[in-house]
């Protein structure tokens, strides 16, 4: 969703801000803008609807601005359509201060009415613009101290009046030596300081090429930045002492590295990602060791939990569902799934004996964070499964198991899905050993087989070209059904989600047994059915379901194990995968479906990495 960037130093801020904004494009946006204080102390800005290239062209072709201090923004519309006027930064009436804002100001209507009565003039339909005018109003009230201290005090007064979750950045022509930032709620903010330059952004990859030592600003904190460093305080002005964290991500990992799209690169990174997720978590005996990482959830507590509820959104939910089957099978504990977006309205029954597992790559998804708050409020213990160090989820959860997926730039989650499933395998094995609910040999065997998955995925990735050939035959379909059973129901859901989000072809994932209860009515020769029929307790059942689809003339595409002649005899196309333990099969079975979705979207010329209407991180309800 929206992105914030700020810079102060000895260089022209505009190219640096544009570069950093380009690295935030993946989060999804529909307009962008930049504001600087130039060498004459003037506040200048430029904004453009659409892609960042429009802003770059505007800055090049007539609206050239430069300055050693500046802020930039990519906007994902909430209040007011995408337009030049609604793009950030927003300025006050005197055009002395510029504001960028992520999140929503819930009480903006009341504030706007009051400011209009006071004579302020608004130029946009956004909730964000009230911040600029409110700040102007609070600055006009005067105060003691240096200009910086007066702006700080005015900003504090402004923050006290704002209701909502947000991150914001301000520059003010009266103080060309400082940038001001604040954070309240899920919208992240990080800052890095290198050799007389400070870079601020709403996401780590934006400034990773400039600095790997990044300070994470927490909720309820204000950051005042100069070229020499920063001052971090709470909203009351009390100093907060926190060291910058060294980010281990390689800056190159947020580059395409020769691949046509980030999504394709990230699909190919999956063997490495699984290795990373497993690294150091299985001992020489083959036992999973997570006690050090999960130390705030004691072993005794884990032994005593009476129920597990798993929550998340989209792909994270699907990964959680694989975890549900693993936990049921290995731990024999009641496990339920609840979409995070439904959690707060669904009256979930949670008590002190419950463990809630919150799945989120970003750790920022507003619905997931809210679900965690509700679960904690009801007394549950919360385990986060998350990819982002310092993200909101990691702070609200009692403990976090990191997935170590590295930066994922493509909006369509791929490598983070397999890393989440891998984390769920690890947690299930750990919990089963602690509770003694499965034979140790069986747990060790699963752990060993998990560590063999990367090599198997390497083999599957070699099939990318043959999958592209199948994609050619499916690219004009208007609708595709994906069917799985048992532990591969989530594979069907995830395969359908991948296809619909990047190709815009309607796709549904279904438990195959449900076909006869409705969806089979959709089938004819124009609706391909993709079935997952790898070895295991439901293979024969799903083959029967696929035969029913074939009888309705649907083209049949099957994910099956090498050498399955029965499947080969009736399928129009087969995606062959190696045979593995059924519980681990979702990790292999999703690979051809990711590649299928990728190739269809690419053949159709779609914007694979930034599909329309979607944001990488959904920070609003
Ligand atoms: C899937 O490709 C999407 N990126 C989306 O469904 C995503 O998984 C969902 O929005 C949850 O995001 P999170 O893992 O960052 O919480």
Per the principal axes of the C-alpha atoms, what is the gross shape?
Answer: globular
Q: Write down the oligomeric state.
A: single chain
How many beta-strand runs? 24
The helix/strand class is alpha/beta
Helix amount, in percent? 25-40%
Distance between the termini: 12 Å
| Number of H- or I-type helical stretches | 21
Strand content: 15-25%
- Give the strand order of the largest sheet, numbering strands 1, 2, ... along the chain: 3-2-4-1-10-9-11-14
Main sheet record: 8 strands, antiparallel
Small ligands present: 2-deoxy-2-amino glucitol-6-phosphate
Q: Specify Rg, calculated over alpha carbons.
A: 26 Å
Any overview of this molecule?
This protein is an alpha/beta fold and 621 residues long. Helix content is 36%, strand content 21%. The strands form four sheets. It has an eight-stranded antiparallel beta sheet with strand order 3-2-4-1-10-9-11-14. A six-stranded antiparallel beta sheet has the order 5-6-7-8-12-13, covered by helices on one side. A five-stranded parallel beta sheet has the order 16-15-17-18-19, sandwiched between helices. Helix 18 links the parallel strand 20 and strand 21 (506-511). It is globular. The two termini are 12 Å apart. The model has no long low-confidence stretch (mean pLDDT 94). 2-deoxy-2-amino glucitol-6-phosphate binds at residues 313-316, 360-362, 365, 368, 411-413, 497, 501, 617-618.
């Amino acid at each position: 969703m929206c992105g914030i960037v700020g810079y102060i130093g000895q260089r022209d801020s505009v190219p640096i801000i544009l570069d950093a904004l380009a690295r935030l494009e993946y989060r999804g946006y529909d307009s962008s803008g930049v504001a600087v204080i130039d060498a004459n102390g003037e506040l200048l800005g430029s904004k453009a609807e659409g892609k960042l290239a429009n802003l770059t062209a505007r800055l090049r072709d007539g609206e050239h601005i430069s300055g050693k201090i500046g802020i930039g923004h990519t906007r994902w519309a909430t209040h007011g359509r995408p337009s030049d006027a609604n793009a950030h930064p927003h300025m006050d009436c005197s055009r002395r201060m510029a504001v960028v804002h992520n999140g929503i100001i819930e009480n903006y209507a009341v504030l706007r009415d009051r400011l209009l009565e006071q004579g302020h003039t608004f130029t946009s339909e956004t909730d964000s613009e009230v911040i600029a005018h409110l700040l102007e109003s609070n600055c006009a009230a005067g105060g003691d101290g240096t200009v910086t201290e007066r702006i700080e005090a005015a900003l504090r007064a402004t923050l006290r009046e704002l209701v909502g979750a947000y991150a914001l950045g301000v520059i003010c022509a009266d103080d060309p030596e400082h940038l001001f930032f604040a954070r309240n709620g899920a919208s992240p903010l990080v800052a890095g300081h290198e050799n007389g330059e400070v870079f601020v952004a709403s996401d780590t990859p934006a400034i990773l090429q400039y600095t790997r030592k990044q300070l994470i600003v927490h909720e309820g904190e204000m950051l005042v930045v100069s070229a020499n460093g920063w001052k971090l305080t709470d909203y009351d002005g009390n100093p907060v002492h926190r060291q910058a964290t060294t980010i281990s991500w390689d800056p190159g990992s947020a580059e395409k590295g020769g691949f046509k799209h980030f999504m394709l690169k990230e699909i190919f990174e999956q063997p490495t990602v699984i290795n990373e997720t497993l690294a150091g978590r299985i001992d020489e005996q083959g036992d999973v060791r997570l006690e050090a990482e999960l130390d705030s959830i004691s072993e005794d507590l884990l032994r005593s939990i009476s129920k597990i509820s798993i929550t998340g959104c989209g792909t994270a939910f699907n990964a959680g569902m694989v975890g549900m089957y693993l936990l049921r099978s290995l731990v024999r504990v009641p496990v339920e799934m609840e979409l995070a977006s439904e959690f707060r309205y669904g009256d979930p029954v949670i008590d002190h004996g419950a463990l809630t597992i919150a799945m989120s790559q970003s750790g920022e998804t507003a619905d997931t964070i809210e679900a965690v708050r509700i679960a904690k409020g009801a007394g549950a213990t919360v385990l986060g499964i998350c990819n982002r160090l310092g993200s909101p989820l990691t702070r609200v959860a009692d403990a976090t198991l990191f997935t170590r997926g590295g930066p994922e730039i493509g909006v369509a989650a791929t490598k983070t899905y397999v890393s989440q499933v891998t984390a769920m395998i690890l947690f299930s094995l750990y919990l089963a050993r602690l509770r003694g609910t499965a034979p140790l040999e069986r747990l060790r065997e699963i752990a060993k087989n998990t560590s063999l998955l990367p090599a198997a995925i390497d083999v599957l990735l070699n099939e990318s070209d043959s999958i592209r050939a199948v994609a050619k035959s499916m690219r004009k379909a208007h609708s595709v059904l994906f069917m799985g059973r048992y532990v591969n129901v989530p594979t069907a859901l995830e395969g359908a989600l991948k296809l619909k989000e990047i190709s815009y072809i309607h796709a549904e994932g279904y438990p195959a047994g449900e076909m006869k209860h409705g969806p089979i009515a959709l089938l004819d020769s124009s609706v391909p059915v993709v079935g997952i029929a790898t070895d295991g307790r439901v293979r024969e059942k799903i083959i029967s379901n696929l035969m029913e689809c074939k009888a309705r003339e649907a083209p049949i595409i099957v994910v099956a194990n090498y050498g399955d002649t029965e499947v080969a005899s009736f399928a129009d196309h087969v995606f062959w995968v190696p045979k593995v333990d059924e519980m681990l099969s979702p990790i292999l079975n999703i690979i051809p479906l990711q590649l299928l979705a990728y190739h269809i979207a690419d053949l159709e010329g779609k914007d694979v990495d930034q599909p329309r209407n979607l944001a990488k991180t959904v920070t609003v309800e």
